[in-house]
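chain below, 457 aa
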Amino acid sequence: MSRKIYTVFSFLLIVAFALSACGGAKPTATEAPVQATEAPAQPAATEAPMATEAPSTAEKVTVTWWHIGTAEKDTKLYQAFADEYMAAHPNVNIEITILENEAFKTKMATVMQSGEPPDIFHSWGGGVMNEYAKADLLRDITPEMDADGGAWRSTISPGPLGVYSYLGKVYGVPTDMGMVGFWYNKELFAQAGIDAPPTTWTELLDDVKALKAAGITPIAIGEGDKWPGHFWWGYLITRICGQAGFEAAAITRTGSFTDPCIIEASKKLQELAQLEPFQDGFLSATYGDEATAVGNGKAAMELMGQWAPAVQKDNSESKQGIGDNLAWFGFPMVEGGAGDPSDGYGGGNGYAVGKNAPDEAVDFLKYLSAAEQATRMAENGGALPVVKGASGVTDPYLLTIQEKTGQAKYFQLYYDQALPPALGSVVNDNVQALFAGALTPEEAAQAVEDAFAQETK
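prediction:
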């Protein structure tokens, strides 16, 4: 057993028991049974396009596929995908294992210790996937991505695909991705004399002042849960440092978390906090409190993921939220920042490829990530495809986010996924301290840098 595998196993045990996907607190799909199960055989969907047929005399190959789609509608759809591919490729047998989220992470830690990962398995990209890549536990599928003039690569939005890349190599494929942005109350903005959402950081601060002057709480945040606040810090770093700045600190280590652009992001965060734009008690409030404030029209905006409208409705007194008064805008550019205004911050789902995966597994993943299958996933409910030509999303809010995600030149994964798992709690704690004014930007930066250096030494 190599030193790399022992190292990554200890890392993955932290993943299994310390964090959940998307930071552990963000709303997820409906819970399902926790035990692993073999997917029941389902008839192939007759209306879907078939994969390219291969000769039946080809050598028999088994492809193992682990996914976390435990809802019945997901198990049926994914089994249909496998059945269709196997019908067109009689030599391929796809063995599906279905695991609930936490059980999946625990079992992945075990199989990664053995050095025998599944051929295709669920991944959120980022820090955990990067650790697998560093331990030589993944297959580099860059050659397949770039074959035929980059035909496969060209079908996937570049920002989300970057989440499944590490040091220039591609190890997986995103299936859906959602971007964090501002959900705001158009009526409250109008009452404050704001006729358009802000496009720059200075304009955002000016709007906060205008809303306060009108007696309106500008921003709701559930900073007692901590993870909502890390969206602000992560986006500011994305806007100010850009991709190169973040990767210098967190990936290549040609820089650090004490670099000037990261300290500047913390200063901007405290610049906002000093305006006292949040609801009373925000440091102890939960995300549910945040959604309630916006859903009841008691705060003008929140910075949150694509699930926000549904949570606002559920938490509002009327169970209708604010209806047509709700609208969305992207995180404003920061004047002088290195980031592109189109760059996004968020997360989603996809698949990584195990190191021993046969070529047939990569071909099946190519089939899974085609526009036809992406459309069917979207129609199945919830997914925001990142494949060009995919359809199936009808909600106008989600269509906007899907469009903006596709336009992103760089897509930054949530920090509690992009960084080593133990760093997620350190980031969240220090960001909360920045909101509270309990740490200076320099102190917060040094604390994150010290923790990162300790975790990765």
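The first strand starts at residue 37 and ends at 38. Confidence is low (pLDDT under 50) at residues 1-56.
thats it, cya
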